[in-house]
Amino acid sequence: MARPRTPIGTFGSITTTRTPDGRYVARTRYRDWDGKSRHVQTTGATKPSAERSLKKKLAERDLFQPGFTGMTADSPFPALVSYWLEDMDLEDRLSKTTRLLYERNMRTLVLPFFKDVTLREIGVARCDYFLKQLAKQSYNRARQARVVLRLALALAVRHEVFPRNPMDHVSRLRRPVRTPDIFSWDELKAIRVGISAWEHRPIKAGPRPEGQLGQVVEVMLGTSARIGEVLAIRLGDLDLDAPIPSVRISGTIVSRRGEPTHRQDHPKTARSVRRVALPGFALRAIRARLEKIRFTHPDTLLFFTRVGTPHTTNNIRRQLRDVMEQAGVPDVTPHRFRRTAATAINEIGGLQLASELLGHSDPSITREHYIRRNETVNPVTAKFLEQAFGRAS
User: Fold this and answer.
1) d(Cα 252, Cα 375) in Å, to the nearest integer?
2) Contact at 8 Å (CB) between 274 and 356?
3) Which residues make beta-bridge pairs with 27?
4) CA 5 to chain centre
5) What is the C-alpha to C-alpha distance for residues 254 and 310, in angstroms, rounded to an integer?
6) What is the DSSP pairing of strand 15-18 with strand 24-31?
7) Beta-carbon neighbour count of residue 233 at 10 Å?
8) CA 36 to CA 8: how far, in whole Å?
9) CB-neighbour burial class of residue 252 (10 A; exposed 0-12, middle 13-18, buried 19+)
10) Distance (Å, rounded) from C-alpha 109 to C-alpha 119?
11) Rounded mean pLDDT of 90-102?
12) Beta pairing, strands 246-249 & 238-239
């Protein structure tokens, strides 16, 4: 009957000998991560110190084993990053946009700080210090860095290079208090007037604006959709002759380096596909746009350039910013229209309805990032308090 093998990570008896120079050598056999037994030894000034040093070395060897990738705790952090990027491609779970975003955040935010350290040197204290220093510059950068650093170190844990993920114990980032910025009615009026003046200005040379900028703004405000989602609306997504005219938000415009701008066949997430009823002002803008489109194929985009290609979101943002600067209206961004619409729906119809309009799966996201809190308490409280505590005159 074969003898059972000694478990990996165990060692035999320790023998200690004295060298001619008076130092002590502690030795033992250790069954390593690959199943092979190897001699391990340390030296010390005394017999107890040599044995303590040996046990410490064995404990570290047990905790920080090389993974199947060949990485060890003494591998440089950039080696882990390279393997992490390769592993994401092999798993193929992320959208290409998210994959590129993670790589960018890792290379620009995390690598500059960790590029000269080994995996063994990355502990809770170092990670905590890094995130706090980055948060002084930008909360969002620190949040993005935390995500990719956690994912990379989690890969090292899965491959048994780390016993645990240091990111599990760093202190939580403190989100700065921020009130979602929305447009007032007067600001919306100024935006509409400014865009109309720009689109109808005298043109001495070159093509006259087609009115698309104003129409895009009206559809953003009337659907609370993201700018990329509005630019991705196709003729087949419109149902304007139904009793309740609506548009199906089912894609977004994507612009990646090295690729032509194109329509992605789902919004930010596949779960945020939704059909939105159109208010009158958005419906009128869409009908005005349809009058200038010669094509009728269902896949034809509602908004496109003069050469028939999709608009890039950056070009629309830049055009909107330039027009608003000329009109003297500051801080006009596409996302403010989204927050403005969501806040209006929340005040009239409640948080759940606002969350559905935005395409969020969790209403808490809507509350935290998109809704401006109404600080006015229902004035009926004054009546109730008067009834409870007022004195008869």
Assistant:
1) 35
2) yes
3) 15, 41
4) 48
5) 9
6) antiparallel
7) 25
8) 9
9) buried
10) 17
11) 85
12) antiparallel
Q: How far is CA 235 from CA 231, 255, 299, 311, in A?
A: 11, 21, 6, 16
Strand partners, 239: 246
**Pairwise CA distance, residues 268 & 97, whole Å:** 10
Consecutive H or E run containing 347: helix 334-349
In the numeric block, the tokens 């060298």 are attached to: 19
Checking DSSP bridges between strand 252-254 and strand 37-44, what pairing results, if any?
Answer: unpaired
**What is the 3-class SS of 44-82, one letter each residue?**
ECCHHHHHHHHHHHHHHHHHCCCCCCCCCCCCEHHHHHH
234, two tokens:
């196709």
Which residue type sits at 147?
A: V
DSSP-derived secondary structure for 207-245: PPP-SHHHHHHHHHHHH---HHHHHT-BGGGEE-SSSS-
Q: How far apart are the first and last CA of the chain?
A: 103
Tokens of 271: 């779960």
Q: Is the pLDDT of residue 204 over 80?
A: no
pLDDT tens, residue by residue, 3-48? 555 554 566 788 898 988 889 988 888 876 666 788 888 988 998 9
Q: Can you give the pLDDT at residue 180?
A: 72
